[in-house]
Amino acid sequence: MTVLVDSGTRVVVQGITGHQGTVHTVQMKLFGTQVVAGVTPGKGGSQVEGVPVFDSVAEAVAKTGANVSVIFVPAPFAKDAFFEAADAGIPLVVIVTEHIPFHDMLTMYYYGRLRGTRIIGPNCPGIAAPGKAKAGIIPNVVFRPGRVGVISRSGTLTYEIVNGIKEVGLGQSTCIGLGGDPVIGTTFVDALPLFDRDPDTDLLVLVGEIGGTAEEEAAEYIRHHFSKPVVAYIAGRSAPPGKRMGHAGAIIARGRGTAASKLSALQAAGATVADFPYDVPTLVAQRLKELGSR
Amino acid sequence: MVKLAEWRGKEIFRRYGIPVPKGRVVRSAAEADELLRSGALSLPLVVKAQVLAGGRGKGGAVKFASTPEELRAVVSGMLGMRFKDETVKELLLEPKVAVGRELYLSIALDRSAREPLLIASAQGGVDIESMADDQLLRIEVHPFAGLASYEKRQVATSFGLEPPASKELGNVLEAVWKAFQLEDAELVEINPLAVVDGHLLALDAKVVIEDDAGFRHPEYAEILDDRTPLEEIAREKEIAFVQLDGDIGVIANGAGLTMATLDVLAQFGGRPGVFLDLGGTDDPNKVTEAFLLMAKAHPSVVFLNIFGGVTRCDTVAKGLVAAMKLVPEEDRFPLVARIRGNNEDLGRQILQAAGITALSDLKASAQAVVAAERPRVAGKAPT
To answer: Does the B102-220 domain belong in CATH 3.30.470.20?
Structure first.
């Protein structure tokens, strides 16, 4: 069992007939994922890239045994799409859609908890376990099977760092892009225990950014509960306070959430901190070497 | 993030049943005169500049007038005035009241708790950040349960009000919560919530609406906030655009990668002036749009750092070369491009053939950008 997705993962794509849904269905299949169903209300009975399309998630689950949903539907309809997946009993929903109002996300998060459905995202690249399955949109080319876990709040920066790990000849166990919104279904602290338990992960790379206090909370968890080495990188150390850095999750407010406070918390928790993204792979290789020599 | 001017916030308060002074907005001294003459307003009045920055009282953006002459002078003096980075275009005129106690109330999102947080203080009227923690009552409000009656009683106890204000408080709290939820607000703040003649009265209003809820609230689409004109154009094209103090332009895709790019540039002494974040996309049309938008900001040099997802790098490169030709000769700038992903070698060849510096290493690219920086052409300040 890896973290969240494995070879038993059966993906249903909600919004499969849209451009993004179709493109990433192809990519997930190329990655080796079993994409077993798509859902677009009113388009049931058709096919997209050889994947059967259903009118409802419940029908897709009943007919195909889908157990992970990836949501691509536009923000105004994302909440409903999530309710449908949760009500159909899907335990893991990856929400790729961006610009979902946080008020909607609060409702979705608590509803998911009632139904026993975990959310990854929204506004996230999703999960990938090379050689096993991908539920999301991280480019296939950056991966190579290995023993480094990656969790991140970013999208393309994650690709950059995962790719760097591949370029130094290492590989990844599972990579999760948690999403950069102010309210996300799974935080660093929620995801850390999954990597700690995962027998396929030797070391964890944590990619954070300024804004919020998620990295500080992660540091606290790592210090007390996490047994594996951690290499961390925080983006935004040169950012001026108060200016919007691309999404609502990255505002420095009231002196908290600064790069400095995150870096010192992670260092104090025993993590190796990279100054720049291109330093991460080297530090990972070093820590793994130390681990091997122990 | 749409920050609403005080008078718009008070309009919302009125709709939800939060008592506010009977004020009027004016945009000229003549309008103020007319309101006095018609009896719509009567002296003495408080005149409040409708700017978004805080510290208005100390900064001369709130004044009093007790005669028609004084009102005319204050209104003419304030309109057109610069306050921090804003020009005063609207004034809110309200009857001057005898303020008793000043309280504080707000609701905002607590990201870590994933719950809205109500903050109340019996010591209002000052900046929340200057309040000591033990003066603040914090109540996490579960979105499914709303603000419970016992929680309202907690606030009432901490305020220690007399009737009728004590009886009005429950409604005010319920209204603040409802406004926060139904208006898709990031923040609803009343500071001060004053006691005037024994009754509660919201003397100020700070309401911030979440952009992403625009599909439910077309009424906020027209309101300009604190963006610069170029930031406004970018918003229409769904590109995050921020202007900083330096001269280097940065185009990247994704907030994290954009920030990392700025960090690396800063490391080598580069000072970013404008950055454009395309979001998670590598859509060649959006890259081209961003490129043309960037030209309008007159950067000294541009660093394009795109990590490709599904789009092939050669497609992005071709779009870029085509876009370069669309930029007028006098607006051209040196460009360093780093495009990673599928077919990146081919993409680099296309760019290099067009005379564009194309590299794959982030560190080397940042160094090339700083080296290529040229002084800004006089008279070409960002528009």
So the answer is: yes
Amino acid at A17: T
Total residues belonging to chain A: 294
Measured CA to CA, the distance from residue B154 to residue B120 in angstroms comes to 10
Q: What percent of chain B has pLDDT over 70?
A: 96
Do A16 and A83 lie in one domain? The reply is yes
Q: Which CATH superfamily is domain B22-95 in?
A: ATP-grasp fold, A domain (3.30.1490.20)
Catalytic residues of A: 247
Among B131, B174, B130, CA closest to B156: B174
Q: Which residue shows structure tokens 């490709």? A: B308
Question: Is 80 exceeded by the pLDDT of residue A246?
Answer: no
Q: What is the pLDDT of residue A145?
A: 97
Centroid of chain to Cα B14 = 23
Sheet holding A118-120, edge to edge: A47-48, A51-54, A34-39, A10-14, A68-71, A92-95, A118-120
| CATH match for B229-372 among 3.40.50.970, 1.20.1250.20, 3.40.710.10, 3.40.50.261 | 3.40.50.261
Total tally of structural domains belonging to chain A? 2
Q: Inspect the interface and report whether the beta carbons of A157 and B111 lie closer than 8 Å.
A: no
Q: Which of B263, B287, B338 to probe by mutation at the A interface, max A CB count within 10 Å?
A: B263
Residues of A in contact with B181 (CB under 8 A): 103
Domain residues for the domain of A28 are 10-120
What is the token pair recorded at B86?
């804003």
Instruction: Tell me what the pLDDT averaged over chain B comes to.
Output: 89
User: Model pTM?
Assistant: 0.92
Is B238 annotated as catalytic? Answer: no
Say what the pLDDT of residue A152 is. 97
